[in-house]
From TrEMBL, chains A, B:
<dbReference type="InterPro" id="IPR036264">
    <property type="entry name" value="Bact_exopeptidase_dim_dom"/>
</dbReference>
<dbReference type="InterPro" id="IPR010158">
    <property type="entry name" value="Amidase_Cbmase"/>
</dbReference>
<keyword id="KW-0464">Manganese</keyword>
<dbReference type="GO" id="GO:0016813">
    <property type="term" value="F:hydrolase activity, acting on carbon-nitrogen (but not peptide) bonds, in linear amidines"/>
</dbReference>
<feature type="binding site">
    <location>
        <position position="178"/>
    </location>
    <ligand>
        <name>Zn(2+) 1</name>
    </ligand>
</feature>
<feature type="binding site">
    <location>
        <position position="372"/>
    </location>
    <ligand>
        <name>Zn(2+) 2</name>
    </ligand>
</feature>
<comment type="similarity">
    <text>Belongs to the peptidase M20 family.</text>
</comment>
<feature type="binding site">
    <location>
        <position position="119"/>
    </location>
    <ligand>
        <name>Zn(2+) 2</name>
    </ligand>
</feature>
<keyword id="KW-0479">Metal-binding</keyword>
<feature type="binding site">
    <location>
        <position position="87"/>
    </location>
    <ligand>
        <name>Zn(2+) 2</name>
    </ligand>
</feature>
<keyword id="KW-0378">Hydrolase</keyword>
<protein>
    <submittedName>
        <fullName>Zn-dependent hydrolase</fullName>
    </submittedName>
</protein>
<dbReference type="GO" id="GO:0046872">
    <property type="term" value="F:metal ion binding"/>
</dbReference>
<keyword id="KW-0862">Zinc</keyword>
<feature type="binding site">
    <location>
        <position position="87"/>
    </location>
    <ligand>
        <name>Zn(2+) 1</name>
    </ligand>
</feature>
<feature type="binding site">
    <location>
        <position position="76"/>
    </location>
    <ligand>
        <name>Zn(2+) 1</name>
    </ligand>
</feature>
<dbReference type="InterPro" id="IPR002933">
    <property type="entry name" value="Peptidase_M20"/>
</dbReference>
Amino acid sequence: MKVSSERFLRDLHELRSFGASGIGKGVVRPAFSDADIAARKWLVGRFTDAGLTPAVDAMGNVFGLADGPSLLMGSHSDSQPEGGWLDGALGVIAALEVARVAKETGGPAISVVSFQDEEGRFGGLTGSSVWSGYSDLAEVDAVADYDGVTLKDARSGIADMVTGEIDPGQFKGFVELHIEQGLTLDAADEQIGVVTEIVGTREIPITFTGQQNHAGTTQMHLRRDAFQGVSAFNTLLNERLRNVVTPTTVWTIGHVALHPNASSIVPGKASFSMQWRDGDAERLRRIEQIVRDTAEEVAEARGLTVYFGPMWELEPTAMDARLRGALERGAEAVAPGRWRRMPSGALHDATNVARLMPVAMLFVPSIGGISHAFEEDTDEADLVAGLQVLAEAVTALND
Amino acid sequence: MKVSSERFLRDLHELRSFGASGIGKGVVRPAFSDADIAARKWLVGRFTDAGLTPAVDAMGNVFGLADGPSLLMGSHSDSQPEGGWLDGALGVIAALEVARVAKETGGPAISVVSFQDEEGRFGGLTGSSVWSGYSDLAEVDAVADYDGVTLKDARSGIADMVTGEIDPGQFKGFVELHIEQGLTLDAADEQIGVVTEIVGTREIPITFTGQQNHAGTTQMHLRRDAFQGVSAFNTLLNERLRNVVTPTTVWTIGHVALHPNASSIVPGKASFSMQWRDGDAERLRRIEQIVRDTAEEVAEARGLTVYFGPMWELEPTAMDARLRGALERGAEAVAPGRWRRMPSGALHDATNVARLMPVAMLFVPSIGGISHAFEEDTDEADLVAGLQVLAEAVTALND
């Protein structure tokens, strides 16, 4: 099946004209913005031109349907408030090109999707979450963005596009191409990453409480300094995790809030986020134990109390062996020796779709690992390589 | 000279009726609030009744002047937004009682002062800063509080009280009694602390800048995490200071701000306050070198850049040997074996007054080390001990 890299790149660049930031190739196309809705209308036209049947559900997920049972491919075309041109758009346009060629050449039945609000104006992966039945639209409708606009209000902007519900039963599986959004492929000068699993995430808000005091009059040995607790916890945790983690395990303290957060006051309270991700559920559990034990030990040793908030849990999502195998063979054909198997550290729509059907994912490099920024980019040769792997895989899956 | 502990305590309790919080003995009496102005008017009356000549300068500092050259005593009667009943009020009322008895008994000439805005609604130690000539009233007039009210606006509330400038040349020295606001005396079950010096302070805002990244897709060895920089700096600094500091040296990271401060994003920037205090200027300088070297080493090792903001410097203020000696002999007479020499870790009006004349300070214990809170308190026996030491000292100084 011979895809057209020219047509693919032309569509990809045309899509970035919707919400073009004027800075590099960046786009400003958050879910339900005028630019996002215009892009979705343009997609409906492109799907129609490709011989697919356009369909839009109440959430604003836009499908281009092949006749009968089909393989679903795609990603999302909404962007971060300051986003890159590729992110989810790449997966949608690559799917469009593969589906179009398949239609033109009598190839396999390929349907295309652009999920809505993957970037989380109203939560996170909102469109695929609702479509997969994980979230209830009536409930999510009440969620408001930072400006107080609810999803229900925002959805009124696409009311004229909605055709009805799209039955997941018609799809045999889902394949999503995406940029890596990390440095692994770029640093290794590789073109393709075949995703083994989307890693699971755990996150616990932790608060140390000590004694707020005057920073001039309180001697060091009498202090119960909550920030010192965070620092000691962090240092000890880094040491202890060393023997438990793999090179792909990640852990992050990204949010810290001291109280009263004043230079002349010994912090009486320090709240922070403790997040970790790994592809193995058992390792996630072992790390949780170390996090809790370490925080309790540090609190005990320093006269602090420790409070653990509710843990946010997201299980690892395994990729389907058959779909993944087809992608691996495609990768070896297109980029021999220049591809790898790797976990996805980021969440993707495939996480939600996996509730309904077999899924697989493919990565192409992000230059400098940069994403969610106007500077986000990928070598066009790598974009085309990703497209070609998809085409190889769907052909093989159809054999 | 026989002071009256009953009259002293009655005045002290009456003063706390101005702005009484209704929670414990707490007061809400920030500078230029209705309660503060009412309290200052009450002080003018008390000074008059004591045979002193009341005088109020444009800043709202309220004096009760003895005739001719005199020793000045006092502190401040404004409070924190949620303050304790003693803080500066103790020093003002103790000075009033000593001056009153001196007047009644033909003792030494004692003048009394309540400085305005020690607690810093418009800066910090504002009243004594302006009176000592360290700050220019016209400049400070433009400073606004958190609600946008300028000092100039606030001062209009006391315009009818102002009598004119008060010449510092009439005072032979300044003695300030204050609560310790720390745990040292309370923990040692001692009644009196004679201040050796008001410690110097250094504070540098420090910023580590790394690379903001996705907390799921950025492998640990590729991260340049600014929060990890702060934690590593803190750990290393604590180790290195161990051989440099004395038991009274203190250092604090009280303010931390991460950017973007989100649980799923590797912090790209971390700004924090690094403050240290010590009575010895040379030690302050050595610590500064260690702070700067350590931050630079940590930045270098972790691929971060480090930025040092302008350093805030306040030199240590030595207490006058003669005044301090009189307080020490008074302490030994009133509380034999239950007093100590100690530095003041907090700033006080005496720091500013020292620009004009010899100064000395006396502490009484703070129960549990608590201050700047409604719970602030001191055993009444200790309050009276402080009053008696002042009386002993002024008598001795007059001999």
